[in-house]
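[09:14] KT: can someone run the structure on this one? pasting the chain below
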Amino acid sequence: MKNTSKNNRVLSCQVLYQVCYKHQHIKPALNQVLPDDITQQDKAWIQNCCYQTLRHYQEMQARWQKFVPKTIKDQLVDLILTLSVAQKFVMDAPDHATVNEAVKACKKLGKNWATGLVNKVLKKTLIDTSFEPQNDPERYNHPNWWIRQLKKDWPDHAIDVLNANNQKPPLWLRISNMEAKLPAGHAHPQMPHAWLCDDTSADIGALLKQGDVSVQDAAAQFAASLLDPKAGEKVLDACAAPGGKSCHLLAYQPEIKLDIVELDPDRMTLVEQNLKRLSLSAHRMMVADAEFPDQWHDGEAYDKILLDVPCSASGVVRRNPDMKVMRQAGHIKPLVDLQQCILEAHAEILKPKGQLLYATCSMFKAENERQIARFLKTHTHFKEVPISVPGAVTGKHGQQIITGTEQMDGFYYCLLERCE
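[09:31] RB: done, C-alpha coordinates below
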Protein backbone atom coordinates (compact mmCIF):
# COMPACT_ATOMS: atom_id res chain seq x y z
CA MET A 1 0.00 0.00 0.00
CA LYS A 2 1.41 3.37 -1.01
CA ASN A 3 1.52 6.27 1.44
CA THR A 4 -1.83 8.09 1.51
CA SER A 5 -0.91 10.82 4.00
CA LYS A 6 0.31 13.31 1.38
CA ASN A 7 -1.72 16.10 -0.15
CA ASN A 8 -2.39 16.43 -3.85
CA ARG A 9 0.28 19.07 -4.48
CA VAL A 10 2.94 16.93 -2.85
CA LEU A 11 1.92 13.99 -5.00
CA SER A 12 1.89 16.22 -8.09
CA CYS A 13 5.41 17.42 -7.32
CA GLN A 14 6.60 13.85 -6.90
CA VAL A 15 5.10 12.84 -10.24
CA LEU A 16 6.76 15.81 -11.92
CA TYR A 17 10.06 14.93 -10.25
CA GLN A 18 9.92 11.46 -11.80
CA VAL A 19 9.27 12.99 -15.22
CA CYS A 20 11.61 15.99 -15.16
CA TYR A 21 14.57 14.54 -13.28
CA LYS A 22 14.25 10.75 -13.51
CA HIS A 23 13.09 10.83 -17.16
CA GLN A 24 10.12 8.57 -16.53
CA HIS A 25 7.07 8.92 -18.79
CA ILE A 26 4.14 10.56 -17.07
CA LYS A 27 1.72 7.62 -17.14
CA PRO A 28 4.04 5.17 -15.33
CA ALA A 29 5.09 8.03 -13.03
CA LEU A 30 1.46 8.57 -12.03
CA ASN A 31 1.03 4.83 -11.45
CA GLN A 32 4.17 4.68 -9.33
CA VAL A 33 3.52 7.72 -7.15
CA LEU A 34 -0.24 7.78 -6.58
CA PRO A 35 -1.67 5.80 -3.65
CA ASP A 36 -3.69 2.70 -4.48
CA ASP A 37 -6.73 4.05 -2.65
CA ILE A 38 -6.71 7.56 -4.11
CA THR A 39 -10.15 8.85 -5.14
CA GLN A 40 -10.92 9.36 -8.83
CA GLN A 41 -11.48 13.05 -8.14
CA ASP A 42 -8.03 13.49 -6.59
CA LYS A 43 -6.40 11.41 -9.30
CA ALA A 44 -8.02 13.55 -12.00
CA TRP A 45 -6.90 16.75 -10.25
CA ILE A 46 -3.29 15.57 -9.96
CA GLN A 47 -3.19 14.34 -13.54
CA ASN A 48 -4.56 17.62 -14.87
CA CYS A 49 -2.16 19.61 -12.71
CA CYS A 50 0.85 17.63 -13.95
CA TYR A 51 -0.19 17.71 -17.60
CA GLN A 52 -0.86 21.45 -17.55
CA THR A 53 2.41 22.18 -15.78
CA LEU A 54 4.33 20.19 -18.38
CA ARG A 55 2.49 21.84 -21.27
CA HIS A 56 3.55 25.28 -20.06
CA TYR A 57 6.73 24.31 -18.23
CA GLN A 58 9.21 26.80 -19.71
CA GLU A 59 6.96 29.82 -19.27
CA MET A 60 5.92 28.87 -15.75
CA GLN A 61 9.55 28.49 -14.69
CA ALA A 62 10.50 31.82 -16.23
CA ARG A 63 7.66 33.60 -14.43
CA TRP A 64 9.02 32.82 -10.96
CA GLN A 65 12.71 32.73 -11.80
CA LYS A 66 12.74 36.47 -12.50
CA PHE A 67 12.20 37.01 -8.76
CA VAL A 68 14.98 34.68 -7.62
CA PRO A 69 18.53 36.09 -7.83
CA LYS A 70 20.22 32.67 -7.60
CA THR A 71 19.35 29.30 -9.09
CA ILE A 72 17.36 27.08 -6.74
CA LYS A 73 19.29 23.84 -6.64
CA ASP A 74 16.63 21.87 -4.77
CA GLN A 75 14.63 20.14 -7.49
CA LEU A 76 11.45 19.61 -5.46
CA VAL A 77 11.32 23.25 -4.39
CA ASP A 78 11.82 24.24 -8.02
CA LEU A 79 8.86 22.04 -8.95
CA ILE A 80 6.65 23.36 -6.14
CA LEU A 81 7.14 26.87 -7.53
CA THR A 82 6.62 25.85 -11.16
CA LEU A 83 3.49 23.83 -10.39
CA SER A 84 2.05 26.62 -8.21
CA VAL A 85 2.56 29.23 -10.92
CA ALA A 86 0.82 26.91 -13.41
CA GLN A 87 -2.12 26.63 -11.02
CA LYS A 88 -2.50 30.40 -11.12
CA PHE A 89 -1.86 31.21 -14.77
CA VAL A 90 -3.15 28.03 -16.45
CA MET A 91 -5.69 26.57 -14.02
CA ASP A 92 -7.01 29.89 -12.59
CA ALA A 93 -6.50 28.93 -8.93
CA PRO A 94 -6.91 31.79 -6.42
CA ASP A 95 -3.66 33.42 -5.23
CA HIS A 96 -4.19 32.95 -1.50
CA ALA A 97 -4.91 29.23 -1.74
CA THR A 98 -2.04 28.68 -4.17
CA VAL A 99 0.51 30.27 -1.83
CA ASN A 100 -0.82 28.52 1.29
CA GLU A 101 -0.87 25.09 -0.33
CA ALA A 102 2.64 25.57 -1.72
CA VAL A 103 3.97 26.37 1.76
CA LYS A 104 2.19 23.31 3.17
CA ALA A 105 3.70 21.18 0.42
CA CYS A 106 7.17 22.44 1.35
CA LYS A 107 6.64 21.34 4.93
CA LYS A 108 5.27 17.93 3.96
CA LEU A 109 8.28 17.37 1.72
CA GLY A 110 10.65 18.24 4.55
CA LYS A 111 11.68 21.54 2.98
CA ASN A 112 10.93 23.81 5.95
CA TRP A 113 13.92 25.98 5.06
CA ALA A 114 12.19 26.94 1.80
CA THR A 115 8.80 28.03 3.17
CA GLY A 116 9.74 31.71 3.46
CA LEU A 117 11.34 31.73 0.03
CA VAL A 118 8.37 30.03 -1.62
CA ASN A 119 5.92 32.35 0.11
CA LYS A 120 7.84 35.46 -0.96
CA VAL A 121 8.52 34.42 -4.54
CA LEU A 122 4.97 33.23 -5.21
CA LYS A 123 3.38 36.39 -3.82
CA LYS A 124 5.48 38.45 -6.23
CA THR A 125 4.98 36.11 -9.17
CA LEU A 126 1.22 35.72 -8.89
CA ILE A 127 0.58 39.48 -9.04
CA ASP A 128 3.06 40.08 -11.85
CA THR A 129 1.06 41.18 -14.89
CA SER A 130 4.07 42.55 -16.78
CA PHE A 131 5.70 39.23 -17.66
CA GLU A 132 7.05 39.06 -21.20
CA PRO A 133 8.78 35.97 -22.63
CA GLN A 134 12.47 36.65 -23.19
CA ASN A 135 13.17 33.85 -25.65
CA ASP A 136 11.47 31.23 -27.83
CA PRO A 137 11.35 28.44 -25.19
CA GLU A 138 9.50 30.79 -22.82
CA ARG A 139 7.29 32.01 -25.66
CA TYR A 140 6.36 28.60 -27.13
CA ASN A 141 6.97 26.19 -24.22
CA HIS A 142 9.28 23.86 -26.12
CA PRO A 143 13.03 23.22 -25.95
CA ASN A 144 15.08 25.48 -28.20
CA TRP A 145 16.35 22.63 -30.39
CA TRP A 146 12.75 21.48 -31.03
CA ILE A 147 11.62 24.96 -32.04
CA ARG A 148 14.59 25.41 -34.38
CA GLN A 149 13.97 22.03 -36.02
CA LEU A 150 10.28 22.74 -36.62
CA LYS A 151 11.09 26.15 -38.09
CA LYS A 152 13.64 24.52 -40.39
CA ASP A 153 11.35 21.66 -41.45
CA TRP A 154 8.08 23.58 -41.58
CA PRO A 155 8.74 27.34 -41.82
CA ASP A 156 5.13 28.07 -42.79
CA HIS A 157 3.57 25.87 -40.11
CA ALA A 158 5.99 25.82 -37.17
CA ILE A 159 4.28 28.42 -34.99
CA ASP A 160 0.85 26.85 -35.51
CA VAL A 161 2.29 23.44 -34.58
CA LEU A 162 3.93 24.80 -31.43
CA ASN A 163 0.71 26.49 -30.36
CA ALA A 164 -1.34 23.36 -31.11
CA ASN A 165 1.08 21.28 -29.03
CA ASN A 166 0.26 23.40 -25.98
CA GLN A 167 -3.48 22.76 -26.15
CA LYS A 168 -5.46 20.03 -24.46
CA PRO A 169 -5.97 17.22 -26.98
CA PRO A 170 -9.39 16.55 -28.51
CA LEU A 171 -11.27 13.28 -28.03
CA TRP A 172 -11.66 11.36 -31.30
CA LEU A 173 -13.58 8.11 -31.58
CA ARG A 174 -13.60 5.46 -34.28
CA ILE A 175 -17.16 4.21 -34.61
CA SER A 176 -17.74 0.47 -34.93
CA ASN A 177 -21.51 0.64 -34.53
CA MET A 178 -23.05 3.46 -36.55
CA GLU A 179 -26.34 2.93 -34.72
CA ALA A 180 -24.80 3.71 -31.31
CA LYS A 181 -25.85 6.82 -29.45
CA LEU A 182 -22.73 8.98 -29.48
CA PRO A 183 -21.75 11.95 -27.31
CA ALA A 184 -22.37 15.39 -28.79
CA GLY A 185 -19.92 16.10 -31.59
CA HIS A 186 -19.45 15.71 -35.33
CA ALA A 187 -17.82 13.41 -37.88
CA HIS A 188 -14.60 14.15 -39.73
CA PRO A 189 -15.50 15.71 -43.13
CA GLN A 190 -13.91 12.83 -45.06
CA MET A 191 -14.35 9.97 -42.59
CA PRO A 192 -17.86 9.30 -41.29
CA HIS A 193 -16.52 6.72 -38.81
CA ALA A 194 -14.24 9.29 -37.15
CA TRP A 195 -16.17 11.20 -34.49
CA LEU A 196 -14.92 14.32 -32.70
CA CYS A 197 -16.53 14.74 -29.28
CA ASP A 198 -17.47 18.25 -28.19
CA ASP A 199 -16.56 17.40 -24.60
CA THR A 200 -13.22 15.69 -23.94
CA SER A 201 -14.57 14.42 -20.62
CA ALA A 202 -17.62 12.77 -22.22
CA ASP A 203 -18.60 9.49 -20.58
CA ILE A 204 -17.85 6.84 -23.20
CA GLY A 205 -17.30 3.92 -20.81
CA ALA A 206 -20.41 2.01 -21.87
CA LEU A 207 -19.73 2.59 -25.58
CA LEU A 208 -16.20 1.24 -25.19
CA LYS A 209 -17.32 -1.79 -23.19
CA GLN A 210 -19.96 -2.67 -25.78
CA GLY A 211 -17.44 -2.36 -28.61
CA ASP A 212 -19.39 0.46 -30.24
CA VAL A 213 -16.39 2.80 -30.38
CA SER A 214 -12.64 2.95 -29.90
CA VAL A 215 -10.54 5.94 -28.88
CA GLN A 216 -8.36 6.75 -31.89
CA ASP A 217 -7.26 10.07 -33.32
CA ALA A 218 -8.62 10.79 -36.78
CA ALA A 219 -5.09 11.08 -38.19
CA ALA A 220 -4.40 7.46 -37.26
CA GLN A 221 -7.68 6.34 -38.83
CA PHE A 222 -6.40 6.96 -42.37
CA ALA A 223 -4.03 3.99 -42.11
CA ALA A 224 -6.53 1.24 -42.94
CA SER A 225 -7.88 2.84 -46.12
CA LEU A 226 -4.41 3.87 -47.31
CA LEU A 227 -3.12 0.30 -46.97
CA ASP A 228 -6.45 -0.97 -48.34
CA PRO A 229 -6.08 -4.72 -47.59
CA LYS A 230 -8.11 -7.16 -49.67
CA ALA A 231 -9.86 -10.36 -48.62
CA GLY A 232 -7.44 -13.28 -48.35
CA GLU A 233 -4.33 -11.13 -48.16
CA LYS A 234 -1.62 -11.81 -45.61
CA VAL A 235 -1.07 -8.58 -43.67
CA LEU A 236 1.40 -7.55 -40.97
CA ASP A 237 0.98 -4.84 -38.35
CA ALA A 238 4.43 -4.34 -36.84
CA CYS A 239 5.01 -2.25 -33.67
CA ALA A 240 1.28 -2.69 -33.16
CA ALA A 241 0.44 -1.64 -29.58
CA PRO A 242 -1.99 -0.53 -28.32
CA GLY A 243 -3.77 -2.13 -31.29
CA GLY A 244 -5.99 0.62 -32.65
CA LYS A 245 -4.75 0.18 -36.20
CA SER A 246 -4.78 -3.64 -35.96
CA CYS A 247 -8.43 -3.53 -34.95
CA HIS A 248 -9.21 -1.03 -37.68
CA LEU A 249 -7.55 -3.21 -40.34
CA LEU A 250 -9.69 -6.19 -39.26
CA ALA A 251 -12.84 -4.08 -39.16
CA TYR A 252 -12.00 -2.63 -42.59
CA GLN A 253 -11.46 -6.08 -44.11
CA PRO A 254 -12.39 -9.03 -41.81
CA GLU A 255 -11.16 -11.63 -44.33
CA ILE A 256 -7.44 -10.81 -44.07
CA LYS A 257 -4.85 -12.99 -42.32
CA LEU A 258 -3.41 -10.43 -39.89
CA ASP A 259 -0.15 -11.02 -38.05
CA ILE A 260 0.58 -8.68 -35.16
CA VAL A 261 4.04 -7.98 -33.73
CA GLU A 262 4.75 -6.05 -30.53
CA LEU A 263 7.97 -6.03 -28.49
CA ASP A 264 6.51 -5.17 -25.08
CA PRO A 265 4.49 -8.00 -23.47
CA ASP A 266 2.43 -5.57 -21.38
CA ARG A 267 1.54 -3.53 -24.43
CA MET A 268 0.67 -6.70 -26.33
CA THR A 269 -1.85 -7.35 -23.56
CA LEU A 270 -3.51 -4.06 -24.54
CA VAL A 271 -3.73 -5.28 -28.14
CA GLU A 272 -5.34 -8.53 -26.97
CA GLN A 273 -7.83 -6.64 -24.82
CA ASN A 274 -8.83 -4.36 -27.70
CA LEU A 275 -9.31 -7.28 -30.07
CA LYS A 276 -11.45 -9.10 -27.50
CA ARG A 277 -13.51 -5.98 -26.78
CA LEU A 278 -14.32 -5.63 -30.48
CA SER A 279 -14.81 -9.39 -31.06
CA LEU A 280 -11.94 -9.51 -33.56
CA SER A 281 -9.18 -12.07 -33.97
CA ALA A 282 -5.73 -12.04 -35.56
CA HIS A 283 -4.02 -14.86 -37.44
CA ARG A 284 -0.87 -14.69 -35.29
CA MET A 285 0.16 -12.47 -32.36
CA MET A 286 3.86 -12.39 -31.60
CA VAL A 287 5.72 -10.70 -28.75
CA ALA A 288 8.83 -10.09 -30.79
CA ASP A 289 11.26 -7.45 -32.04
CA ALA A 290 10.22 -5.81 -35.31
CA GLU A 291 13.87 -5.00 -35.97
CA PHE A 292 14.65 -8.70 -36.46
CA PRO A 293 11.95 -10.43 -38.55
CA ASP A 294 14.23 -13.42 -39.08
CA GLN A 295 13.51 -14.33 -35.45
CA TRP A 296 9.75 -14.65 -35.95
CA HIS A 297 8.81 -14.56 -39.65
CA ASP A 298 7.37 -17.86 -40.93
CA GLY A 299 8.94 -17.55 -44.37
CA GLU A 300 5.77 -16.58 -46.28
CA ALA A 301 6.01 -13.00 -47.56
CA TYR A 302 3.29 -10.44 -46.86
CA ASP A 303 0.90 -8.79 -49.30
CA LYS A 304 0.63 -5.68 -47.13
CA ILE A 305 2.63 -4.33 -44.18
CA LEU A 306 1.71 -1.51 -41.83
CA LEU A 307 4.91 -0.13 -40.35
CA ASP A 308 4.08 2.44 -37.66
CA VAL A 309 7.66 2.74 -36.44
CA PRO A 310 8.96 3.99 -33.06
CA CYS A 311 9.50 7.74 -33.37
CA SER A 312 9.97 11.00 -31.48
CA ALA A 313 6.18 11.33 -30.96
CA SER A 314 6.59 15.01 -31.85
CA GLY A 315 3.19 14.97 -33.56
CA VAL A 316 1.30 13.82 -30.46
CA VAL A 317 3.01 15.95 -27.81
CA ARG A 318 -0.28 17.56 -26.78
CA ARG A 319 -1.26 14.07 -25.55
CA ASN A 320 2.21 13.46 -24.11
CA PRO A 321 3.51 16.80 -22.79
CA ASP A 322 6.23 15.00 -20.85
CA MET A 323 8.02 14.60 -24.20
CA LYS A 324 8.79 18.33 -24.25
CA VAL A 325 10.78 17.92 -21.03
CA MET A 326 12.26 14.47 -21.65
CA ARG A 327 13.05 14.45 -25.37
CA GLN A 328 16.52 15.72 -26.31
CA ALA A 329 18.04 16.59 -29.66
CA GLY A 330 20.45 13.68 -29.35
CA HIS A 331 17.55 11.21 -29.24
CA ILE A 332 16.53 11.78 -32.86
CA LYS A 333 19.44 10.15 -34.70
CA PRO A 334 19.20 6.83 -32.80
CA LEU A 335 15.47 6.79 -33.58
CA VAL A 336 16.15 7.47 -37.26
CA ASP A 337 18.72 4.67 -37.31
CA LEU A 338 16.25 2.27 -35.68
CA GLN A 339 13.51 3.24 -38.14
CA GLN A 340 15.90 2.62 -41.02
CA CYS A 341 16.75 -0.86 -39.70
CA ILE A 342 13.08 -1.77 -39.24
CA LEU A 343 12.10 -0.43 -42.67
CA GLU A 344 14.90 -2.29 -44.45
CA ALA A 345 14.16 -5.51 -42.58
CA HIS A 346 10.47 -5.44 -43.51
CA ALA A 347 11.24 -4.66 -47.14
CA GLU A 348 12.71 -8.16 -47.29
CA ILE A 349 9.50 -9.91 -46.18
CA LEU A 350 7.16 -8.12 -48.60
CA LYS A 351 5.91 -9.90 -51.73
CA PRO A 352 6.65 -8.56 -55.20
CA LYS A 353 3.88 -6.03 -55.96
CA GLY A 354 3.21 -5.96 -52.22
CA GLN A 355 2.74 -2.64 -50.44
CA LEU A 356 4.19 -1.22 -47.22
CA LEU A 357 2.65 1.77 -45.46
CA TYR A 358 5.33 3.64 -43.52
CA ALA A 359 3.85 5.77 -40.72
CA THR A 360 5.01 7.91 -37.81
CA CYS A 361 3.42 10.32 -35.35
CA SER A 362 6.36 12.68 -35.89
CA MET A 363 6.64 16.16 -37.35
CA PHE A 364 10.38 15.92 -38.01
CA LYS A 365 11.39 15.36 -41.64
CA ALA A 366 14.43 13.31 -40.62
CA GLU A 367 12.04 10.58 -39.48
CA ASN A 368 9.70 10.98 -42.41
CA GLU A 369 10.41 12.15 -45.95
CA ARG A 370 14.20 12.08 -45.54
CA GLN A 371 13.95 8.55 -44.17
CA ILE A 372 12.00 7.52 -47.26
CA ALA A 373 14.39 9.34 -49.61
CA ARG A 374 17.30 7.39 -48.15
CA PHE A 375 15.41 4.11 -48.46
CA LEU A 376 14.39 4.63 -52.08
CA LYS A 377 17.94 5.60 -53.02
CA THR A 378 19.31 2.30 -51.72
CA HIS A 379 16.30 0.10 -52.61
CA THR A 380 15.76 0.66 -56.31
CA HIS A 381 13.31 -2.25 -56.48
CA PHE A 382 10.83 -0.15 -54.50
CA LYS A 383 8.75 2.78 -55.67
CA GLU A 384 6.52 5.31 -53.92
CA VAL A 385 2.78 4.97 -54.58
CA PRO A 386 0.96 8.35 -54.63
CA ILE A 387 -1.58 8.77 -51.84
CA SER A 388 -4.01 11.50 -50.88
CA VAL A 389 -4.66 12.29 -47.23
CA PRO A 390 -7.31 15.00 -46.84
CA GLY A 391 -5.83 18.11 -45.26
CA ALA A 392 -2.25 16.82 -45.38
CA VAL A 393 0.77 18.60 -46.86
CA THR A 394 2.55 16.86 -49.73
CA GLY A 395 6.32 16.74 -49.29
CA LYS A 396 9.11 15.30 -51.41
CA HIS A 397 7.86 11.89 -50.29
CA GLY A 398 4.60 10.99 -48.56
CA GLN A 399 2.00 13.14 -46.85
CA GLN A 400 2.28 15.01 -43.55
CA ILE A 401 -0.73 15.89 -41.41
CA ILE A 402 0.22 19.06 -39.58
CA THR A 403 -0.66 18.98 -35.88
CA GLY A 404 -3.96 20.78 -35.32
CA THR A 405 -5.31 20.38 -38.88
CA GLU A 406 -9.01 19.49 -38.45
CA GLN A 407 -8.02 19.06 -34.76
CA MET A 408 -5.94 16.00 -35.68
CA ASP A 409 -2.58 14.83 -34.36
CA GLY A 410 0.57 15.30 -36.42
CA PHE A 411 1.03 12.17 -38.55
CA TYR A 412 3.06 11.06 -41.56
CA TYR A 413 2.24 8.45 -44.20
CA CYS A 414 4.13 7.11 -47.21
CA LEU A 415 3.03 4.10 -49.28
CA LEU A 416 5.78 2.01 -50.88
CA GLU A 417 5.51 -0.87 -53.37
CA ARG A 418 7.97 -3.60 -54.14
CA CYS A 419 8.44 -3.70 -57.90
CA GLU A 420 10.22 -7.03 -58.42
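[09:33] KT: thanks! Residues 40-55 form the longest helix (16 residues).
[09:34] RB: yep, looked fine to me
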